[in-house]
Amino acid sequence: MHAFKYHRPASVNDAAALAKGEAKLLAGGQTLVQTMKLRLASPSDIIDLGTIKDLAGIKSDGKSVTVGAMTRHAEVAHSADVKKAIPALAALAGMIGDRQVRAMGTCGGSIANNDPAADYPAAVLALNATITTNKGKYEADKFFKGMFTTALGAGEIITSVSFQVPKRAAYTKFKNPASRFAIVGVFVADFGGSVRVAVTGAGPAVFRQADMEKALGAKFAPESVANIKQKQDGLNSDMHASAEYRAHLVTVMARRAVEAALR
Amino acid sequence: MAVKVSLKVNGKSVSVEVEERTLLVTVIRENLRLTGTHVGCDTAQCGACTVSMNGKAVKSCSILAMQAEGADVMTIEGVAKADGTLHAMQAAFKEHHGLQCGFCTPGMVMNAIDFAKSHPNPSEQEIREALEGNLCRCTGYHNIVKAIGAGAKAMAAGK
Ligand SMILES: Cc1cc2nc3c(=O)[nH]c(=O)nc-3n(C[C@H](O)[C@H](O)[C@H](O)COP(=O)(O)OP(=O)(O)OC[C@H]3O[C@@H](n4cnc5c(N)ncnc54)[C@H](O)[C@@H]3O)c2cc1C
Ligand code: FES
Ligand code: FES
Question: Do both A39 and A92 map to the same domain?
Fold first, then answer.
């Protein structure tokens, strides 16, 4: 790891003032520390968000669940409020990595990182979340731009994410058995009349499956998606799975997610 | 540049001078010479470096020492009683032969102790899921799973 200067700001404003040039924000470090060890990232400065009090925590008001950027995956997985309002979100957080990673990794870090196989982006997109930063707000549909890229500007800090409470929802993931990241994960959310289906792991970044959304909007049932084929074009193809296999998994995971949402 | 980091390790307050890029595991092994915490992969995969930080099992190879400022850290050296009596989870690993070479064992035990606090009577499935972040190259996990089940029950019984 290359040397850097370490900062422990007391507030989001202080952090923003430091987040200039080659500086990088540090949340749980579960991605960034390893990236720095591999020298894929060599920031001049590390700005640790870990001690900023008001960045962590969960609020639920019946219509939405707001998760602070520094809220650890384990806290979301075990939160009674999240389990009650959006059980699928708690379940998703509990499926990330392993329990040691979940003790450190954060919602904000996961969304900012936008790994093509990450779980949180699927929840953000399917639950039509709003991402709040120190500069403003983003709708989920305008946030994820492509592989490891988002709408965040340089040094922009996510402060919280508000997930809309659906009528019912479920997330199913076909895990890479070694890393537990999603080979394909599908989040289905029924808002009563309108349905959102978000697919992670399959493409360069999370995306919505319009054909499935339409079919499920007409009838929220597993058979509505069972015969909808995902196009292979542009899907990821690597040593873990071919594009053809991933396309097949999208349909299977979507069907299972609908079954789970109806249980 | 050298900076100071102060934390509690196994109940004792310590303060060490480190470079800002130093990992928590490096402080534990090299500055404090507590070599029970192992480094297997150095890439957040194997869990051999698992320690307890503020009561939660974490991978100390993936945490900067600076992130542990003010934290209460427990390593494998801190779990037995001062007189050498093994912790209930350590005793269960011994009893159920939950190790062969022992390289993964400190991480296994540290993760298991944290897991058992919220799972006094875990199912085999729950234990296997809890071990997703701990790799063992020797045992095939079977006896580790047995040991954790027994250790969790013993902990719940106040042993
Ligand atoms: C073994 C292992 C298995 C994993 N398995 C999974 C999995 O199954 N599914 C999954 O989704 N993830 C998985 N992860 C990734 C994990 O969820 C990470 O915690 C997450 O991707 C990054 O979160 P973090 O808090 O650790 O962020 P960091 O590593 O600290 O930061 C990641 C990036 O986000 C930026 N950032 C952090 N916080 C903010 C913020 N508030 N505003 C703006 N930018 C910010 C940082 O600058 C950095 O570029 C795994 C990780 C490991 C080590
Ligand atoms: S050495 Fe830390 S997880 Fe392997
Ligand atoms: S006992 Fe040898 S690695 Fe687990």
Answer: no
pTM to 2 decimal places: 0.96
On whether both A145 and A227 belong to a single domain, the answer is no
B59 Cβ inside 6 Å of ligand 2: yes
Measured between CB atoms, does A24 come within 8 Å of chain B?
A: no
Distance CA B122, CA A34 (A): 32
Which H helix or E strand runs over B17?
strand B12-19
Confidence at A178, pLDDT banded by 50, 70, 90: confident
**For B5-38, how does the pLDDT look when each residue is reduced to its tens digit (9 = 90+)?**
999 999 999 999 999 999 999 999 999 999 999 9
**Residues in contact with B23: Cβ distance below 8 Å, sequence separation at least 6, in sequence order:** A33, B60, B61, B62, B63, B64, B65
**What would you report as the CA-atom Rg of chain A, rounded to the nearest whole angstrom?**
18
Q: Which of A194, A258, A190 is nearest to A222 (CA)?
A: A258
Q: What whole-number distance in Å separates Cα of residue A50 and Cα of residue B104?
A: 29
pLDDT one-digit tens code per residue, A86-111 = 999 999 999 999 999 999 999 999 99
DSSP state of B70: T
Provide, as residue numbers in chain B, all residues whose Cβ is less than 8 Å from the Cβ of A10.
Answer: none
What is the number of structural domains in chain A?
A: 3
Atom of ligand 2 nearest to the CA of B62: 2
Q: Give the DSSP H or E segment for B50.
A: strand B50-53
A256 contacts A172 by C-beta, under 8 angstroms: yes
CATH number at B88-156: 1.10.150.120
Whether A34 sits inside 8 A of B44 (CB atoms) is yes
pLDDT at A193: 83
**pLDDT tens for each residue of A181-213:** 999 999 999 999 899 999 999 999 999 999 999
SS3 B149: helix
Chain B contact present for A80, CB below 8 A = no
Q: What is the value of ipTM here, to two decimals?
A: 0.96
Candidate from A48, A100, A179 with C-beta closest to B66: A48
Q: Could you tell me if the CB of B42 is within 6 A of ligand 2?
A: yes
* CATH, range B2-77: 3.10.20.30
Q: Of all residues in chain A, what percent are helix, strand and coil, respectively (each to 5)?
A: 35, 25, 40
